[in-house]
Amino acid sequence: MINTQKAKPLFSYNFYACPLCIIFFLLNIYVLLHEGDDVHFSFISVIGGFFLAPLLLSSGRFIALLCTPLLLSFSLFEAYTANKYDLITRPILRAIAGTNQHEAFSMLASYGVFPPLILLTFFIFITWLTYKAASLKLVLLGLSAIILSITLTEAWHKTNRQQPETQRYNISERGHWLRYFFPGIMGDLIYMTTLYISSDNRPSLPHLEQNSSIVGKLPLKEKNVILIIGESAFSGHHSTYGYTLHNTTPYMKGLSDEGELCVVPTVHSGANMTRLAVPMLLSFYEPTEQQRLYNEKNLIELARDNGYQTSWISSQEGTGEYARPYGYLSEYSDFIVRQDYHASENHVDWHDESLLPIVEKRFSTPSPYNFFIIHLTGSHSRYEDDVTKEDIQALPKANAYDKSLHRTDRILHQIIDLADKHLKDYVLLYLSDHGEIVDGPVKGHSIQYGGKDQYKIPFYIKSDTNHYCQQAESMRNSRGQYSSIMTKFLLLEMLGYKVKEDTLKSYYNHDEVLHSDGVVYDYDHLPHR
Predict the structure, then answer these.
(1) Which residues are CB-contacts of 303 (< 8 A; sequence separation ≥ 6)?
(2) What is the radius of gyration, based on Cα positions, of the chain?
(3) Which positions ≥6 away from 26 have C-beta within 8 Å?
(4) pLDDT tens-digit readout, 70-103
(5) Residue range 314-325, pLDDT digits in tens
(6) Where is the Sulfatase N-terminal domain (predicted)?
(7) pLDDT of 258-289, one tens digit each?
(8) Residues 292, 213: Cα–Cα separation, whole Å
């Protein structure tokens, strides 16, 4: 008799599907163990998250191939992020989601060839495994869908009770609360998706309320105030701060040696990421007073109120969830050009050199009083992108980070030359948004247990007198630290505003910073393992 029964396949569906589910399970566990304190764990939400991979694999080959490799690659990326930054927090996810295309490719390239190669190999392997495993399994599909639906429904109902007005205004706020009640890879994926589709473009409407620290106007004010905001500059690698391995800041050091530049020592930023640090320089936004960014007049508005023409010139973007806080500030200026705003007609991109023609044009525009904000890309990772042939020739044995500092020194040289040529009477401040970890096994900023290097920044003041340098010295706290948060009070004096003495004294006995996990810490008690 001829046996007409079909032979069983050598490997069953489970042979391929089980490894995929196990990989997702293990990656999700790892991510859950590294979620920050900004999530809420419950039994049903944790269990529910594990059924996403089975749901996709049992949905048929088309859906499985479309989604599963991307999900697992994202999961691997999440695990890598958890390993690098120690904690996966809301600010970290905002930073990743808000990274522009150039920064994303630069940062990926900065990890070397192996991580991207591993990710690509992993993606190909998972795609092949998914092709073998994917099949329409109605029972598993139904079971996974029910469990996930229960989990998401519970998270949705809990979310509805949290700041409903804010959630209606901003979809990313809804994503944040869904992640809060549904932690893990799926919650992070939901939140980052809402960040991506949300422009978060809060309109820059005039504020009526003025901060209570301002008590009047001064009889004198500076004609031209220039604030240059650097990026990821660690003062410990500036020659002006005693770094001797390479002459990373020859121009600024030369000015300092000649007595034409004040180098403020022992300075740290108010935060370890750009979106948190920059608003602290130009508004009353502070670690414990974050609502002031949107509730009170910022320094650009106050400058305009006191007769200043204001200009914001930036090689960074100002839209999207990550960049929006300082993009929002920029739009109070009379003149704005950013990498994503009036860029093409002004030939501006992420290269800091592209700003120089605009800087010269604005410096030569006649106006009795001017307030210029110049926001640089500086030494943002990947450092090799921030280096030119001139820097390589000047520091042939230096690493890419030191060369990027040399490049910023040249940019400052050119800006100061333009100010000398067109403005003559001016005060110039340069400080970085935050520092950078460059000497340890883990490099970068926004790192949970990264310590103080990601806060330590250079601060230079160029003025005809030593007055503002002395003022900065008087603003040190009881531990001898100058926080960049105090810079707004220096700027207010330059812009002709009088500030209460009691306000300045109130900073003397504390030194708070806003860390990348969204938590306010004392600077001397940053989180550590």
Answers:
(1) 225, 310, 371, 495
(2) 26
(3) none
(4) 999 999 989 988 888 888 887 788 777 766 666 6
(5) 999 887 667 888
(6) 223-464
(7) 999 999 999 999 999 998 999 999 999 999 99
(8) 13
Instruction: In whole angstroms, give the CA distance from residue 472 to residue 485.
Output: 11
216 touches 498 (CB < 8 A):
yes
Q: Report pLDDT for 226.
A: 98
Residue type, 342: H
Classify burial at 95, counting beta carbons within 10 Å of its beta carbon; exposed 0-12, middle 13-18, buried 19 or more: buried
DSSP string, 232-300: S--GGG-GGGT--SS-S-HHHHHHHHTTSSEE--SEE-SBSSHHHHHHHHHSS-BTTBTTHHHHS--HH
Report yes or no: 270 and 277 within 8 Å, Cβ to Cβ. Answer: yes
- The DSSP result for 303-319, as a single string, is HHHTT-EEEEEESS---
Cα–Cα distance, 496 to 221 (Å, whole number):
4
Span 422-430, average pLDDT: 96
Report domain extents, the chain.
13-197, 214-525
Considering only CA atoms, which of 234, 263, 241, 236 is closest in space to residue 462?
263
Between 487-494 and 467-474, two packed helices, what is the crossing angle to 10 degrees? 140
Q: Specify the DSSP class assigned to residue 436.
A: -
Q: Could you tell me if 223 and 424 are in contact, meaning their C-beta atoms sit under 8 angstroms apart?
A: no
| Percentage of the chain lying above the pLDDT 70 cut | 92
Q: How far apart are CA 61 and CA 55, in angstroms?
A: 12
Yes or no: say if 102 and 352 are a contact pair by the CB < 8 Å rule: no
Task: Name the token pair of 314.
Answer: 């930036």
> What architecture is the 214-525 domain classified under in CATH?
3-Layer(aba) Sandwich (3.40)
Can you tell me whether residue 224 is helix, strand or coil?
strand
> In whole angstroms, what is the distance from residue 277 CA to residue 525 CA?
18
Instruction: Indicate if the pLDDT at residue 7 is higher than 50.
Output: no
Q: Whole-angstrom Cα distance, residue 327 to residue 379?
A: 20
- CB under 8 Å, gap of 24 or more: what pairs does 175-182 form? 176/90, 178/152, 179/39, 179/90, 180/38, 180/39, 180/40, 181/40, 181/42, 181/45, 181/154, 181/155, 182/45, 182/48, 182/49, 182/151, 182/152, 182/155
